Amino acid sequence: MDAIISVKNLSKTYASGQHALKNVSLDIRRGEIFALLGPNGAGKTTLISIICGIVNPGSGIVLADGHDIITEYRKTRSIIGLVPQELTTDVFESVGATMSFSRGLFGKPPDDAYIEKVLRDLSLWDRKDTKIITLSGGMKRRVLIAKALAHEPRILFLDEPTAGVDVELRRDMWNMVRGLRESGVTIILTTHYIEEAEQIADRIGIINHGEIILVEDKHTLKRKLGRRQLKLTLRNPISRIPEGFSEFKLELTPDGMTLVFDFDANAGETGIAGLLKRLDERGVDFSDVNSSESSLEEIFVNLVRNGN
């Protein structure tokens, strides 16, 4: 699949001396949902702002659908939509008027049917004549999304789109995102809600200290970096792991009631059979067994911690 966004050797240092981006290279595939994860100050917003033409790059090249964001800025801005973290619209305008105005800014002809569809998808149609200043925070967030979609962009950036919004809006937003992807729009999102990225994204990129430390398909990432654990609940508590288990990666929970065994589910020999046999030989009785795998959040935390 070809790249609709191509970032090569991108760096940015602010006047304060902060090195926000350090030689970042990244390709985002056409038609995918790409989640960019990273702690506060990692460089997520700077990267998005440069691609969207809001912040000037220090060095490097960025192409959007084959067009250079510097030399062909009018073209690139016309194919990119951005939903920023903060409210950036005239609060005294009505919902419908601000969307129509945004569409006109990009030279798009009036299209009442398209505007109605977007507003209905975002549950804003019955508020199309309402002034934005009177809306709740969640509704204002919906207006930002409508405004970003006004000119029918082929690339949509969502910068922390669900921060502080209600569950209903999150559900509506992700339903719309999936629908946009099906229509061919490429979605790039940053989020602090890692479970959302786990549910909706096709690929995950992790940025820390201004550097891309990993880009991987979501399922491949979990398979490569995730851990599987076998938890054995003991019939009686023990104070320490008995002798004879040094070859197994075992941990004992503080209450002495559970043994935790890490294993590679993709390995030809997981070691589970040997562990169970050894427990039986040592007379360690257990009442329950269950297994689990690492969540994307656990993988993310471990990657960022190890990168510090």
Question: Could you write a compact summary of the structure shown?
Answer:
33% of the residues lie in helices and 28% in strands. With 308 residues, the protein is an alpha/beta fold.
Task: State the end-to-end CA separation.
Answer: 33 Å
Which bin fits the share of residues in helices?
25-40%
* Largest sheet: number of strands, sense, barrel closure: 6 strands, mixed
Class of the largest domain in CATH?
A: Alpha Beta
- In CATH, the topology of the largest domain is named Rossmann fold
Quick one: CATH superfamily of the largest domain? P-loop containing nucleotide triphosphate hydrolases
Tally of DSSP helical segments: 10
* Order of H and E elements: EEEHEEHEHHHEHEHEEHEEEHEH
Beta-strand portion reads 25-35%
Order the strands across the largest sheet as they lie in space. 6-7-8-3-9-10
Low-pLDDT runs of 5+ residues are: none
**Structure class:** alpha/beta
Strand tally is 14
Radius of gyration, in angstroms, nearest whole number: 24 Å
Q: What best-fitting shape do the alpha-carbon axes yield?
A: elongated
Number of domains: 2
Which architecture name of the largest domain does CATH use? 3-Layer(aba) Sandwich
Q: Whole-number average pLDDT? A: 86
